[in-house]
Amino acid sequence: MAVTKAYADGMLRYGVIGVGTHGESHLQCVAAAANARLAAVADLSAERAAVMSEKYGPCQVFVDYRELLAQDDVDAVSIVLPDHLHRQVCEDAFAAGKHVLVEKPLATTVADAEAIVAAQRAAGKTLMVNWSNRWMHSFAQTKAALDAGELGNPLYCYARLNNTLFVPTKMLAWAANTRLPFWLICHRYDIARWYFRSEAKRVNAVCRSVKLKSMGIDTPDFYQATVEFANGCVGNFESCWIMPESMPALVDSKFELVCSDGYVNIDAALPDFVIATHAKQLNRGTLQGDVMGEPVGFVNQAIKHFINCVLLGQEPLITGHDGLMITRALAAMVESAEKGEPVNL
Q1: Confidence at residue 9, expressed as pLDDT on a 0 to 100 scale
Q2: Between the chain's N and C termini, which has fewer beta carbons within 10 Å?
Q3: Per-residue pLDDT, 286
């Protein structure tokens, strides 16, 4: 499809709302893109926003994201904010006529997810939820093998995705405002739903609160959820974020897929190489990062995909509808664990 007239110069003018740790990844990828130009950043920390503008711009700097959205020279935005703060900013972005790439999850309630999708449809703009793990080569190649019929029909998956204690105690000031289904399980549930091509029918989940509760952080330590899909597939999902900080990597990941004619075993955190200092062993790997100053890996690929979809007027791989359906399943996990009984969808 040809580039639309609105982007005849082939450049997407881009803004990033929220330029913390992951927000900087968006800035780095946009700044390196051949068909995008960083036009503005917004963050509650004026100092942080100014530093990021100088590093990846120069571009306009705002403390109030609504001032960024009011700029005519911003076509699209990345919204990289805490899980529970997506709805209002997404609605405002669509009302301002912007295309939106929102970090996962779409929302932490079904009502918020429905409102975001309604705003996107009313605006007629592009919405992509950034479940960037789809661009990890192992997950992408498994999907290609499934689509080619090489594995037969998918039947069951086991997915583990854990973080060390660093994440809820030091990295996220807002850990108590989210739950692990929205923070971690969502990544692997998205992959499973992508492979199974079906929606959740029944969810049975458990959680426990011990370690973080003792530290004054009101969110569970771990969740385990069994999901039965409408087509008969079954997924077993588990996540915790109280692994010791001495672990060689921040993320502990495992994914197994059982099919009628095949089996896949993916360790997404398996290192390509290890660096050991006197203080600690570090599994750097090659999933993401930079090579000679250029961003590489799945995060960069996902953001490039969004930019290309907007410029070409194409639907992204992960739509608002996907985000809504996934939010329904994730919310059911939280509900099931809190009630101590299965939830039917």
Answers
A1: 80
A2: N
A3: 52
Q: Does domain 5-133+300-319 have CATH number 3.30.420.10?
A: no
For residues 76 and 316, what is the distance between their CA atoms, to the nearest angstrom? 14
Polymer length of the chain: 345
- Domain covering 135-292+326-344, topology: Dihydrodipicolinate Reductase; domain 2 (3.30.360)
Question: For residue 75, what are the contacts with CB-CB under 8 A and spacing of at least 6?
Answer: 6, 7, 12, 13, 14, 98, 99, 310
Percent of all residues in the chain with a pLDDT value above 90, rounded to a whole number: 86
- Smallest CA-to-CA distance from 208 within 188, 179, 233 is with 179
For the full predicted model, state whether its pTM sits above 0.85.
yes
Contacts of 20 (CB under 8 A, 6+ apart): 43, 48, 80
